[in-house]
């Protein structure tokens, strides 16, 4: 018998991860839709593939899974308000928000984010109450900033621990 929903949710809360916003254009091609995901991962180096999971009930689900291309913006610690906005069920998450346009695929990307990735939709797998979307990375940009992390239902930052000097032990 599988674990209970409560136990499974506590497992998810225990896993710390970078906070990302996945964006695309809606079915009309005119408005931006998106959602906050903590399930974003790099999948393959050759070819460069990434993936994330999206719940079937998400407002942006029809647009994201129908889109030929999407953007992924990994947020900096200064962008927790954007993460909260895209995690909500509100109808207009994009008002008064600045977007960059992808240089290659023209997908919407969160301005000033830590990482901006432009992807072509490569594969979609339906599994349980989610779809797993795999994207082929066509372009990406990074900038130097502290990442926004999600853990135990809260946003936070990363504090690096010192790396031991390995040359002294030789």
Any key phrases for this structure?
170 residues; mainly beta; Pnp Oxidase, Chain A; seven-stranded antiparallel β-sheet; three-stranded antiparallel β-sheet; 3 helices; 12 strands; globular
Give the termini separation: 51 Å
CATH topology grouping: Pnp Oxidase, Chain A
- What Rg is obtained from the alpha carbons, in whole angstroms? 17 Å
Structural class: mainly beta
Largest sheet: 7 strands, antiparallel
How many domains comprise the coordinates? Answer: 1
How many strands appear in the DSSP assignment? 12
| Level-1 CATH class name | Mainly Beta
The proportion of strand residues reads 35-45%
Order of helices and strands: HEEEEEHEHEEEEEE
Give the rounded overall mean pLDDT.
90
Helical fraction:
10-25%
What is the H level of CATH, i.e. the homologous superfamily? Answer: Electron Transport, Fmn-binding Protein, Chain A
Largest beta sheet: strand ordering? 3-2-6-9-10-5-4
Q: Based on the structure given, which CATH architecture is correct?
A: Roll
Shape: globular
Alpha plus pi helix count: 3
Question: Which oligomeric state applies?
Answer: single chain
Instruction: List low-confidence stretches.
Output: none
